[in-house]
Amino acid sequence: MAAPQQQKLKVNGPVAVTANRLADGAVVWRTAAGGWSTALGDAAVVTTAPEAIALLEGAHKRDTDAVGAYVAPVVLGEDGAILPGNLRERIRVNGVTFELPASEPPASTLPAA
Amino acid sequence: MYVYDEFDRAFLAERVADFRDQVERRLSGALTEDEFKPLRLMNGVYLQLHAYMLRIAIPYGTLSSDQLRRMAHVARVYDRGYGHFTTRQNIQFNWIKLEDLPQAMADLGEVGVHGIQTSGNCIRNVTTDQWAGATPEEFDDPRIWAEILRQYSTFHPEFTYLPRKFKIAITAAPKDRAATKVHDVGLRLHRNEDGELGFEVLVGGGLGRTPFVGKSIRPFLPVRHVLSYIEAIMRVYNQFGRRDNIYKARIKILVHEIGAEAFAEAVEAEWANIRDGALQLTDEIIDDIRARFLYPDFAALEDEPAELTAALEDPRFATWYRNSVHKHKVPGYSIVTISLKPVGAPPGDATADQMDAVADLADAYAFHEIRVGHEQNLCLPNVATRDLPELWRRLDAAGLATPNVNHISDIIACPGLDYCALANARAIPVAQEISKRFADLDRSRGIGRLHVNISGCINACGHHHVGHIGILGVEKNGQEFYQITLGGRADEHAQLGTLLGPAVSYDQVPGLIEDIVDAYLELRSSPKELFIDTVHRLGVEPFKERVYATH
Question: Entry's Pfam families (chain A) (predicted)?
Fold first, then answer.
């Protein structure tokens, strides 16, 4: 599968522009003020392709803050909350869908005697 | 272990210094992302969904205890306390910050490990049998030849910008644990009728969106010609391989399009010009490389010591012993596989504490040496058989004694959509759920050898095409679906799996796998007939009839 950056832009509902922060790769969202935020709630949400392209062009102007910007679907909750619009973005926002390995030795893995 | 010399150490230090400078220039804006990306990729640095990922090569799967301990250090200091062993004898750190990468690389470089040849369109980390140098089956230690190829291919100017990445695997035993038939080039070491050592050369294997089993283009190549012959293959590929379409640029497409015979003719014609030139390996060169591999000072020990006999009275030890211990070429010693697939855990992951524990055990019982296999498990290749009971107890204390090697819960899985920017479905949680369904080790032992491979997209990093049961994640209308194949195998009889039927949803996968297993238990001719043999005897139809009747 091609990464979202390589796919043709389609806007069929609310979208935001997202990227990874240059210094640490953290997921960031383009704000209406032309900055980046790690909180999806701060994202500028648009609903047309020209608006999305304008956001994206702004994101691409300066690449020392964030890299790999692309347009991602979002969903607007009843309370106005901005939520990720697909599984990929849910994982980017909420983290991996399983428990990360913890650095304490687990209990015995052997079958009972 | 292979002993690096001053040249290697200086080379790595310079490389780290170069990368530190590149990162500084990138962070300051002196380099654009377009300029920086190929530089980071040449050092094994990817940008994934949530963070940068550092892929470190473990050449021919061999690690010293100091190297593994240093990987634990990197996991602990720069990452989130764990690492992920991959299907190509690499380790990946999934959460490293770009600003920390130069120092992490410097720390790794001090013990001779790096990310070179783990990314980009170059000859990648050459892989081989994790039992190399230890198994009685082998004709020679394949790591000698992997190291020769590594030295030859690293930063070779002709191979820095190949049409696509290029993967070579070597086996020196008839039993293929290196998946040589599904690599761009597979080298199978054997002896001819005169006792001379040489390679069967396979070309054009590979998985991904267009999978092929490699074709044999030369049944016997004397070992001294291995570099010139590989160079001839690379020249033909460089000349005729497609660069206009990334999906058709691997050598397998070229071999398929012109045919193995025509490809072989082109290689032989090219080889005729260079075979007796500077690339011919002299005995002196081979002996020099061979001498840099230091082998353990094995003692004369009993093959069936009293310690083992006594410990086998314990059924838990006996279970682990039968599953995870194999015969060594030296009497009194054993090869131990350490499963990195505890029930319900992400396949191939090891915490920093577990890496340290394995390093300590390698020091105590295995001459400081660890191996990594493409099945995403670790191996202690040289353990005195009398020490096995004590080793087992200490492995268990570290959560590393699950006796499920080659069982259904010994799943190979790519990172999938939880980490990977290319994936379109998750792989790890699917593996975890299947593993939990078959947590009963008596049940999985009754099922016998069964390899499940899961990929989160068509790029096939989980090698689903060659799983006895292959699971491929696809995306349909924003939902995860999974295609199931049966009958694939990655060994010396390598074969691609056959599609079972329509894709099923994420939630249906574990139940479907249980139904496939139940069908096998009904259909097998006897408890001795392995899953793969039942599928090959009957085809997929009897499985399809039973499985889809309930889904």
Answer: DUF2849 (PF11011)
Mean pLDDT of A24-31: 97
CATH superfamily of B412-549: Sulfite Reductase Hemoprotein, domain 1 (3.30.413.10)
B29 to chain A, any CB pair closer than 8 A? The answer is yes
pLDDT at B551: 64
Closest CA to B333 of B380, B392, B279: B380
What's the CATH class of domain B306-397?
alpha beta
Residue A1 scores a pLDDT above 70: no
What ipTM goes with this model? 0.92
Contact assessment for residue A97 and residue A91, using Cβ atoms and an 8 Å cutoff? yes
Query: At how many degrees (to 10) do helices B65-78 and B101-109 cross?
Result: 170
| Identical fold between B134-291 and B306-397 | no
Strands B168-171 and B185-191: parallel
Contacts of B336 (CB under 8 A, 6+ apart): B324, B325, B326, B366, B379, B380, B381, B383, B388, B391
User: What is d(CA B169, CA B261) in angstroms, rounded to the nearest whole number?
Assistant: 21
Q: Is B315 on the interface with A (CB under 8 A)?
A: yes
Q: How far is B317 from chain A (nearest CA, A)?
A: 9
- Which one is the CATH code of B134-291: 3.40.220.10, 3.40.640.10, 3.30.413.10, 3.30.465.10? 3.30.413.10
Identify the CA nearest to B536 among candidates B491, B502, B489: B489
